[in-house]
Amino acid sequence: MSKTPITVAYGDGIGPEIMSACLHIIQAAGAEIEIETVEVGEKVYLRGNTSGIDPEAWESLRRTRVFYKAPLTTPQGTGFKSVNVTTRKTLGLYANVRPCVAYHPFVKTKHPGMDLVIIRENEEDLYAGIEHRQTDEVYQCLKLITRPGSEKIIRYAFEYARRNNRKKVTAFTKDNIMKLTDGLFHKVFDEIAAEYPDIENEHWIVDIGAAKMADTPEAFDVIVLPNLYGDILSDVAAQIAGSVGLAGSANVGEHAAMFEAIHGSAPRRAGQNLANPSGLLLGGVMMLVHIGQPEVAARIHNAWLRTLEDGIHTYDIYREGISKQKVGTKEFGEAVVQRLGQMPQTLKPVSYAAGESIPPGTAAAVRQPARKETVGVDVFVNWNEAGRDPNVLGERMKALEGEGLKLSMISNRGQKVWPGGSAETFCVDHWRCRFLAADGGAITHAQIVNLLGRVAAAGLDFIKIENLCTFDGQPGYSLGQGE
Ligand code: NAD
C-alpha cells in the first residue's frame, strides 16, 4: 500500500504531548501515512503573522489535503484570526462531524445510552462575520443561510447516516421565527430527506430540541444543524456524554479535510504529561477512515475502548471505584499500543470496514435561478428626533413618496410602529421604512436611487437599504409583525 501524505500540526499548550502520543499509536497500528509537519498557531502569531498560519503550511495543506491538527492557542485581543476558522473557510470544510458517545460504566455520564453524531454547518449563518454598527444604539450581524450551503450539509448528514448504519437524521432550526433563513434550511431538509427513504427524518424547533437532547440524548441519532446552533449544541452533547476530553471531530469539504479534538490547548495542563489524548486520537481514527485505512482505524478504536474498559484513565476521567490506574498522556498512549489487536469486552466494538464512513463533501446541485422581480425597498434610517414619535417620521417619509413608490409601513426592531403603532412600543434610533410600488408591480433601480436622493435631500440619515424582491412570484422578504 502506498503511503498517504498528511499534514500534521503539533499545536500549542497540551498539543505537542497529545499529538506525540496519538502519532505513536497510529504508527504502531500500522497506518500507511507520510507525515509533513507544519508550524501553526501561537509561535506563528508571535512572529507577527496575524493569521497564525504561514504560506509553507498552506502549500503542504494544498498538497496533502488532509490536516491532522492538535489544539491551538489564539492570543487574546483583536487582530488575531483563528486558524480554525481560516482553515475551514479557505479550504471549504463545510461539514463538522462530531460523534458524542457515552462510555458507561467506564466513564461517568448522566446518559449511559448516549450515542449521537452532531453534523454542524461550518461556513455560513452568523459566522460570516459581517457585522456593522449602524446607529448610535444599534449593531447588526448578518445571518446568511444559502441554498447550496444547506443542500451540501444536509446531504452530507444523510450520506453519513447511510454509510454508518444510522437510522435517523434530525434537523434543528428556529423557522417559526426566522421563516426565510431557517425556513430555507428546513425546506431543503425536507427535500433531501425525501431522497433517503431508508432513513427516518424529523425536525425540531431548536429550543425544545436542545432541551430534549440534553435530557434524553438517546432519542437522537444524527443531528444536522446550522452553524450557531451546531456550535453550541455540539459542545453540550460532548459534555453530557462524559467529557470534552473524549470527543474528536472531522471538518470535511469537497477538496480537503481536517481532523482534531474538540477541546482547546488547555495551557494550564501543558508540559505536565497529564492531558488526555483521546479526543485527538478519535479525530485520528476518523482521518484514517477518510483516507481509506478503515482496518487500521478500527484496530486503534477497539484498542482504545479496551484501554478505557481496563480502567486505565487520565486524570480528567479518573474516578475512585471505577478507574484502576491513573496514568499520564504518554502512559495512556503506551497502554493503547499494548492493546492493539484486542477488542473491548463490554463496550460495543467498532468496525469501519463497510463503505467509507467519513465521506468526502460533494458539490450542491446546479439549479435554474428563480424569476426575480424587485417590488419595493426597505430604507433604514438613523433617526432620533421629535421624541422618536413614529407619526412624525411617518409624515416626513410620506412626503418623500413619488415616482410610483408609496410608503407602506415603518417598523422599529421589527415591530410595526406606523401606521397605527402602539404608544407603549419602545423605540430605538433605527427605523425601517418600507416603500412598495403604488401599483403593486415591479420597480426599477432608478426609482430606488431617486428615492434615496429625496431621503438625503430631506436631511434624513439613511444607513442601509434592502431591496424587496419576489422569486417566482413568492415574496423574498419577511412581512413584519402587525401586517
Ligand atoms: P480548553 O478546552 O483548552 O480547556 C477547558 C478545560 O478542559 C480545562 O479545564 C482543561 O484543563 C480541560 N481539558 C481540555 N482538554 C483536555 C484534555 N485533553 N485532557 C484533560 N483535560 C482537558 O478550553 P479553554 O481553556 O477555553 O481554551 C484554551 C485555549 O484553547 C484558548 O486559547 C482557545 O482559543 C483554544 N482553543 C482551541 C481550539 C482548537 O484549536 N480547536 C478549540 C477550543 C479552544
Q: Count the helices. How many?
A: 13
From the helix content, strand content and strand pairing, which structural class follows?
alpha/beta
CATH architecture of the largest domain: 3-Layer(aba) Sandwich
Give the CATH level 1 class of the largest domain: Alpha Beta
* Gyration radius over CA: 27 Å
Number of strands: 20
Q: Give a list of the ligands.
A: nicotinamide-adenine-dinucleotide
Contiguous uncertain segments of 5+ residues: none
Q: What composes the largest sheet? A: 10 strands, mixed
User: Average pLDDT across residues?
Assistant: 94
Strand content: 15-25%
Strand order, main sheet: write it out.
2-1-3-12-11-4-5-10-8-9
In percent, how helical is the residue content?
A: 25-40%
CATH topology of the largest domain: Isopropylmalate Dehydrogenase
Apparent shape: elongated
**What is the count of structural domains?**
2
Distance from N terminus to C terminus (CA atoms, Å) equals 66 Å
What is the CATH H-level superfamily of the largest domain? Answer: Isopropylmalate Dehydrogenase
Task: Characterize the structure shown.
The protein has 483 residues and is of the alpha/beta class. It is 32% helix and 23% strand. It has helices spanning 15-28, 42-46, 55-64, 83-91, 147-163, 181-193, 206-215, 227-241, 278-290, 294-309, 329-338, 390-398, 445-457; strands spanning 4-9, 33-38, 66-69, 95-101, 115-121, 131-133, 139-141, 168-173, 200-205, 222-225, 248-252, 257-261, 312-313, 325-326, 372-382, 405-412, 415-418, 430-437, 461-471, 474-475. The radius of gyration is 27 Å and the shape is elongated. The termini are far apart. The protein binds nicotinamide-adenine-dinucleotide (NAD). Residues 14, 18, 71-74, 84, 244-245, 260, 263-269, 275-276, 279, 316 line the site of nicotinamide-adenine-dinucleotide.
